[in-house]
Amino acid sequence: MIVKDEARFLAGCLESARGAVDEMIVVDTGSRDDSVAIAKQAGARVLSYTWTHDFAAARNFALAATKAEFVLQLDADEELAKGSAKAIRAAVGQAKDAWLLRLHHATRLDADRAAVVAGHADARVGDEQNLPRLFRREARYAGAIHEDIGEWLHAHGGRLGHVDADIVHWGRTAEVVAAKDKAELNQSLLRKAAAEESGLLYHGYLATELLDCGKHEEAHAVAEEAFGRLERGLVPSHHSALRVALVRIDGALRRGDLGRVAATVQLVEAREGSHRDLQHLLGEGYLAAAIPARGHARARNLARAIAAFGSAIDKAGVRYAQAFVSGAGHEASHTQRGIARLLEGDAAAALADFDRALARRPKHRPAWLGKAEALVALDRAKEALAVLDGRLDETPDAWVVAAAALERLGAIEDLTACLRAARERVSKGYVSSHRRRVHLDRAAALASYQGQPIVDDSPMGVLGALLSRRPLAVEATGATFPDARTLLDPLLPNLLGLGRGDLAAGLFEPRARALVPGIVDEIAALAARRGWNLGDDGEEPRFCLEGDTHACALVAKMLGEHPQIRFAAGGTKVPVSVEPMEGAVSVQALFAEPRRAISEIYARLGVPFHEAPLRAVLTHEVES
After folding, report:
1. Do 270 and 262 meet the contact criterion of CB atoms below 8 Å apart?
2. Residue 500 and residue 509: Cα distance in Å, rounded?
3. Which residues are CB-neighbours of 297 under 8 A, at least 6 positions away?
4. Residue 237: CB partners within 8 Å, gap ≥ 6?
């Protein structure tokens, strides 16, 4: 190993490696702390080296100092995990030139080592990486920074294997990164190396370094320049384009350029083979394109997103030499596929994906938000609220999902409070961008419950136009909005329960069928879920209700006694009134004693109460 001022970690590193190696060589490049003394005390051979701003040169100096047949390379801020020594010694008996070990980045300095290796969310940053850390002594490093033995392996036809061994890395913790503050130095070295190279290696390192530092525009420009070389065939075949591709895709996703995402994935996978990182990001691109789309475009992009995330998940067990997208193939891909399935209308499959994500990372916030949302869609609103309990945070998402659950339960006052809280947090941004539409739809539904439907060309706005019988600008173009039908539950039941049957009547008029194809079938399905019978047996209804404001809302109360209802014109009109009027059934009586009031209706019709089910009618004839 090479070290400079690593007294904090050096003793632990050397102690962890003791059982795996026969000698320990520490090359010091100018330490001013106790690193040299600590290394000597641990039994290491310590050599001095004058630093030349070239990491590969320093490492090659260390390699030249040993006569061992095989070398294990560690950095001072790393430790070999327990149980790894035996696997390392067994590996060198195989006919290989280098072996990949698993590297795990700890989240904090007090993290449990076993938890880091196991990948617990609060212990490890991102996924494991597979790096060539065990190799023949003849290997040589290349690269002034981010040095590796890749060029040597390619030149010598190196045979690469895997070792069932793990390294815990402490240097990615926030405390250590802040203390070393190497970002500007690294970028300076990488800019120089990128300017001198003919391939992609340092362009990829520079682009990712810039991206990690928040310098997005410069990072994307570096990636585009490098990718141009790749497209012109100017890059050596053994130089991986993965880093450059991931940064280029990041830029394309930020701009909403799905075509560039797909083209990038296609070119790199044709060159290097399919990779779970690329498939996951391709899925992200299709999902981002699906969220604002409608109709066939939405369905097509959702299907493609689900397929891409599935491809990433299928590759979860592959050990890649390079993998950078945290959770790709695992919790991130399951979560995003769950969202796509949810938007596609398959809430049960979505819930299974969210549960798989949480099985791997129990605290994965996007997954438990998705799980709560799927439970709402499955009409399990109370379970959804239990999932959200204690998780209403400073982002709007949890409040929006809670609002949707409360709406399902008919808790309109609590719905109002949740939407107010979500609105106050919109500036924080949504965890998943599709919830912006969910938020707007819930706010529009609340406006309808308050008797002021919002009218626009969104699916909920179209329902608002039907509820309020107001014109819709795009109506003259013949546009239809089949997606709107999926929003009827819980809108229609809540309108009836709140006494807004006068608004609900607009959903059963011919205009509704023209604007929202399939609305009749959706209402029938909703009725079936709610235990209502909306079937049409060809008979005319025996009576319909007409009269004062909100008369239609009585249906919701009456269904408790007679769960059978017809929506049609015709039949004997039975007057209903808030104020006393001759021959009318009072609203108060229907709400207070529905069975008795209905029996009075039957008596007037000359039909025994027990022989005929109630057949009520909501039509455009029923007015406020």
Report:
1. no
2. 16
3. 289, 290
4. 271
The strands making up 78-80's β-sheet, listed across from edge to edge, are 70-72, 124-136, 98-106, 160-169, 78-80
> In the β-sheet with 2-3, what is the strand arrangement from edge to edge?
2-3, 25-28, 45-48
For 298-320, write each residue's pLDDT tens digit. 999 999 999 999 999 999 999 88
Q: Quick one: which of 350, 338, 282, 352 has its CA closest to 312?
A: 282
The H or E element containing residue 118 is helix 113-118
- Per the CB < 8 A criterion, the answer to whether 556 and 583 are in contact is no
Q: What is the CA radius of gyration of the chain?
A: 33
518: tokens are: 């399939």
Q: 515-519 contacts: CB < 8 A, separation 24 or more?
A: 515/462, 515/465, 515/466, 515/472, 515/475, 515/480, 515/481, 515/484, 516/462, 516/463, 516/466, 516/480, 516/481, 516/482, 516/484, 516/485, 517/480, 517/482, 517/485, 518/482, 518/485, 519/484, 519/485, 519/488
Q: Is 379 left (phi over 0), alpha (psi -120 to 50) or beta?
A: left
Closest Cα partner for 334 from 350, 319, 353, 320? 353
Q: Which residues of the chain have pLDDT under 70?
A: 180-181, 499, 501-502, 531-595, 597-599, 601-624
CA quadruple 398, 404, 408, 411: dihedral sign:
positive
Query: Residue 192 has what pLDDT?
Result: 87
The whole-number pLDDT of residue 580 equals: 54
pLDDT 10s digits, 347-403: 999 999 999 999 999 989 999 999 999 999 999 999 999 999 999 999 999 999 999
Q: Is 74 in contact with 17 (CB distance < 8 Å)?
A: yes
Of residues 468, 462, 505, 503, the one with CA closest to residue 482: 462
Burial letters for 69-101: b for 16+ Cβ neighbours within 10 Å, e otherwise?
ebbbbbbbbbbbbeebbebbbebbeeebbbbbb
User: What are 70's strand-pairing partners?
Assistant: 136
Give me the pLDDT at residue 582, please.
60
